[in-house]
Give the backbone structure.
Amino acid sequence: MNQIAEWDWDTKEKYIADINEWRKKFPVVRGLVASDDGEKIATVIQTEDNRFTTCVNGDVWEETFERLWSLKFTPDNKFICLTYKDYEWALAVDKEFWEDRFDSAWNLTLSPDGKNIAINVKKEESYGVSLNGNTWENRFVDARDIALSPDGTRTATLIQTKRLKEGDIFGFQEGIWTVAVDGTPWDKTFVNVWGVTFSPDSKHVAVEVRFNLYDYTIAIDGKTWEKVYNCVWEPLFKPDSNDIIAPVKTSDGWTLAINGQPVWDTYVQLWNQRFSPDGRRIAAIVAPEYGRWTIAVDNIPWNNSWSDAVLPPIFSPDSKRVAAVVKESRNPFHMESALHNVEGNNRYSIAVDGTPWPGDFEMVWDPIFSPGSDKVLAKVEKNGKYFIAIDGRIGKHGYEALWNPVFSPDGEKLLIRCVEGGRYYRRVVPIHEI
Amino acid sequence: MAVKNAVKSAVKEKVISKDFKEYIRDVNPDVGLDETIKRLTPEKIEKTIKAVIGGRSSRIKAVMNTCIHCGLCAEACQWYLSNDKDPTYAPVAKMRMTIWEMIKRNGKVDAEFIKQCARIVFTECNICHRCSMYCPYGLDITFIIGMVRRICFLLGVIPQRQLDQAQAHIVTLNQVWLSQNDWLDVLQWQEEEVGADFKDLRVPIDRDGAEVMWLPLGAEPKTGTYHIERTAKIMYAAGVNWTLPSKDVWDSSSMSMFVRDFVTMQRIVRGLYDNAARLRIKKMVLTE
């Protein structure tokens, strides 16, 4: 985010690449990936000898591979991808490889500033993590999911501590899963662990744990909350503190617990809790009744609710407003209703502070607040084309492909990354022209 | 001598229920039933039964009192029909020999009784729901059988293979213990397999905004990898913009449902929808 001010906000339009031309030039062109600042566009192309390589702004990498995956640009515009050649996976950053090679590499994860890269790896028949090419010396029977600390220096993954014979139902229930942080497993093991996350100061790790077939709680640095619950969902650290909030299921229903103590009313369901940027407010998805979903902010549900979907809440930069993607069907259990994508039925929209936009769309991506918190926009799909919608009003231009727009630091302009007429453009457009 | 031995081996050892003398079955060793009950105590059994039945005992009693033993449910049951209409396979008998008895005895049943319940509800009922459809009073027999499964699950008394698959779901959220990297490797490998025959035939992973997300059964990437190749060909021929998720959950089956592990059931369904929302797909296509 802090690099956005340095982007080019003056040039109205840059024609970056002719994608149609790439399609004529190469046997196969796969999905497109745009850099955050819009200056670069990358893809995987197939070469004449049926191998694969990358093409960034028309620059084709001479080296070719059997597989290429997880293409990404870092916030500082480095191009990274996972490559597979001669039975080895390697991570490449701007065409330079990490020294280490892997049997498998996945879950490519970046620190917020993009300067640190972590992946889950399998190497010599054991599993672990590699951070910036430094692979854990301790590796394990299996590893699932990865967390990278906010400062980019620490990693954690969920690990299986010992092998299990086929059908060993008793060994399983002894608990053979835990968390490994920087390669060191917690002493305590569990039937299962999920939702690993770091604290804002990167010093602590929290996770959901299952003790047996029916008891759950949250563990922090290997120490569990005293209270156990019928179920829990992913924990979240409060900004600038080590307090943890997590949805927990009690005999009365789902509520939100802080450091193990339930603090909200109970709901039929509750998940995807989020803190406001100032850390003072909490929003979460709740089901106030069966089949109805909404957002609750500080334990007060919005008046409106939706039948099909409410996606995770997003706070405005000033912490005062909340927006979420919502979806309604007239009758979600009626087959005709589910299949007919018509106006007002089975369609997506955005709700801001509980009020839905007047229009609806075939699809809506996450809402984005302006820096001043006064405007909300989203990428939307209508009639097979992609548009920008602001405060419920759909923009004039439909695109063949569109990436999430970015507000200029003053909130007056938008960076639009789009494909139009088979060409990729970077445009800077005043808000009133959308 | 050889003939005598052959005859002897053909006669299977039988077990007769001490609670229901007419319930006679072959001995069928299963550590998921035989060993797990050794860990039970009367207190744990009673507490678990009461926790599951809880406020629903009146609902179950209503079923018990409403049932007129007409036997129509039996005619709906493939277990009853395929066992020479042995009445102990009738759905009403399965209720009578399990949860009705638990309620009558106020949860005070022993471990052997729980084992018998587990055998009945897990190995002699498919939860197909036909009996509920046949019942002239619409009694939800399957719901009742499911409650017994829930009690057995919480007590850990489940046939080994079923529990093993359910435990696979607990950890991996797929029923075949597939690691995250193996799932991805299979997809990439299958793309290579078909890519040689068709230009740009994809097994696309995490395609944002695709129309369709296909969610296979766990066995397909494990032992039926050709299903992925064939699905890719069908999608290609039909011109469907489709994708598969890189992240858990991708297995559309739920062994957790069969053992009534409600938490893992929720986790599976939530994971499927989370992937759909993350990738902004419009339709989910599931193998069945």
